[in-house]
């Protein structure tokens, strides 16, 4: 049995769950969690994000690969919250992305809602299904495979 999870998990708690740091930490808050099933995280997209300097000047758009990375990070949080101490010291690496689809641009001021569910687990790998939304509209979706390995 895992420890009781208190929601929301704010940025200090996110730092304990993921090794990523600025500018590559793409999760600001964990707002929903179903043990072994599902997580919902938020990324507040600020005009101050470094990637907006070059993508694209005068018409900033969050790169799609970073939206997919944010989904993968949410998947890592789901696994770490589910396994608790059983995965301390492990890192999750993105192995494969399938069926990625981009439906809406993500721009400064948006709050990206990242909903990730576990589709299946095979040994040290987990297949996630992820949907990124802004204001309830799908911005992107993908199936993501991550491998968990010791540091």
Explain how this protein is built.
It is a single chain. By secondary structure, this protein is of the alpha+beta class. It contains two helices and six strands. The chain has a six-stranded antiparallel sheet with strand order 1-2-4-5-6-3, with helices on one face. It is globular, with a radius of gyration of 15 Å. The mean pLDDT is 95.
Observed structural traits:
about 150 residues; alpha+beta; about 20% helix
Write a brief caption for the model.
This protein is 18% helix and 41% strand.
Shape: globular
SS-based class: alpha+beta
Helix content: 10-25%
| Spatial gap, N to C terminus | 24 Å
> How many beta-strand segments?
6
What would you report as the Rg, rounded to the nearest angstrom? 15 Å
Low-confidence segments: none
Question: Which strand order spans the largest sheet, edge to edge or round the barrel?
Answer: 1-2-4-5-6-3
- Number of contiguous helices: 2
Main beta sheet: strand number and arrangement? 6 strands, antiparallel
How do the helices and strands follow one another from N- to C-terminus? HEEHEEEE
DSSP strand content: 35-45%
> Roughly what is the average pLDDT, rounded to an integer?
95
């Amino acid at each position: 049995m895992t420890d009781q999870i208190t929601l929301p998990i704010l940025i200090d708690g996110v730092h304990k769950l993921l090794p990523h740091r600025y500018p590559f930490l793409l999760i600001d808050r964990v707002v929903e969690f179903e043990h072994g099933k599902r997580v919902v995280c938020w990324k507040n997209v600020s005009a101050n994000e470094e990637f907006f300097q070059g993508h694209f000047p005068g018409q900033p758009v969050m790169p799609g690969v970073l939206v997919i990375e944010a989904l993968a990070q949410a998947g890592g949080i789901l696994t770490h919250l589910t396994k608790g101490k059983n995965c301390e010291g492990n890192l999750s690496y993105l192995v494969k992305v399938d069926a990625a689809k981009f439906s809406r641009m993500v721009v400064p001021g948006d709050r990206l809602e990242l909903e990730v569910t576990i589709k299946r687990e095979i040994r040290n790998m987990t297949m996630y299904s992820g949907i990124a939304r802004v204001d309830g509209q799908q911005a992107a979706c993908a199936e993501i495979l991550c491998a968990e390995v010791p540091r």
